[in-house]
Amino acid sequence: MSSMDSAQELPSRPIRLYLHGQLQQIHDLPPDLSLLQYLRRHADSCGSKEGCAEGDCGACTVLVTRFAQGELKTASVNACMQYLGALDGCAVWTVEDLAQGGQLHPAQQAILDCHGSQCGFCTPGFAVSLADLQLRCAKPQRAQVVEALSGNLCRCTGYKPLIEAGLKMQDYTPQTIFDPATLTPQLAALHDAQGASHSHPRCTLFAPRSVEQALRLRAAHPDACVLAGGTDVGIWLNKQLRQLPQLLYLGKIDALQEIHSTEHELHIGAMCDLNRFWLSMRQHWPQLEEYHQRFASHPVRNAGSIGGNLANGSPIGDAMPLLIALGARIELGRLQDGRIALRQLALEDFYLGYQRKDLGADELLLRILLPLPDGQARALFVWKIAKRFDQDISSVAAAIHLHFAPEADGQRRIHSARIAFGGMAATPKRARATEQALQGRWWDEAALAQAQAALTQDFQPLDDLRASAAHRMRCARNLLHKAYLQSGAGLPAAACELSAASAEAV
User: What is the DSSP-derived secondary structure letter of residue 271?
Assistant: First the structure.
């Protein structure tokens, strides 16, 4: 069946979106065209620049407003990795929209007054990122400004003035980019409860609105590429020039974006964006704040989904070691006899080898299920080792989760341990031999030494451009040592804090 024929399974129609406040109906462009290419080549909006085309530099940062659960949600994203078909029903705001009525936006005026324009190429992206921050926070602190600019990596001359501009924005009269009272009914009118497809000879994008629709399409088109946030697929298209004739986009399914808790578990929909995911995690594990900030950048987290991150299965994915150490399970779904059939498995069992997963051709990852803290004596440590603080790929990521037995004589005995690493093997992997070396042991230097030695049974890391095998193993051993020190081993419980904040390795 051709892409054009298969599109009839969902109503086929043009892509509809608002750009600069004006409705666009796009008939003749492929749905896998990036928003950045559309802006620059077809919409005469060249303020957004192309620097890296992989979501690193931030020169193409724009704002996207979606209508979801009856309200507007606006977030900064990288235009180079957003695709027209996935933006159907949205409103897009670029640097050209910041100034209103001849008056510069506070972000623009502050950059001008603080002399933060640098060479000018990346400045539009900085301005949009700061405008996004003003939407979220009227009086940001320095740390919030730095975090908001984590996806704008140019440091050529003026980074300090740009931070000063972020702090100075509050000195100007606030300025809105759009009127919510006007935009809400406009986007609500584009809301399509039936799902849709967008077809072009090059590519067809299916956008179902329910899990059942998605699974039916998955079964009918097992070769279709599943598109979540696009932060990885975007690189396939931009840098590897892959051709993907069919895309199954899951971003319109509200049920896959839900987060809720039971008495003992946290349930997270696979399409939950990464910022919402980390904020939810921090409600239960506050020590994850820094790990959250070091996971990609703010715009990438706005676009990427936790399910896409897990299903990608990268050996250097930073979420997987943490979730494995916390005992996460995933829920997979498929259609069987016309009904949704679910199965669950431990996250560590999902990864069979490099780029190989226990995922059928007719299955989709639907939810992550995570045990909530149970009030027992536990210590959770998470660290990311990379060459820069912001938005860098890990050399090693470690998650160490220790469960202590009741104390005796002021010492701690390890009842059980769950330890996982990224960057140490072909997949994110649980360190079972290391865990066994700690099982039932007093948490002392002898147990630490035995656990460090056991790492060689669990991992034989590779040399690559990010780090040597020796460096990775040394980091892993040091992080075990750091967990030992930060858990206050050998000290009475009152002398230490069992939930330690993350930090760089010693």
Answer: T
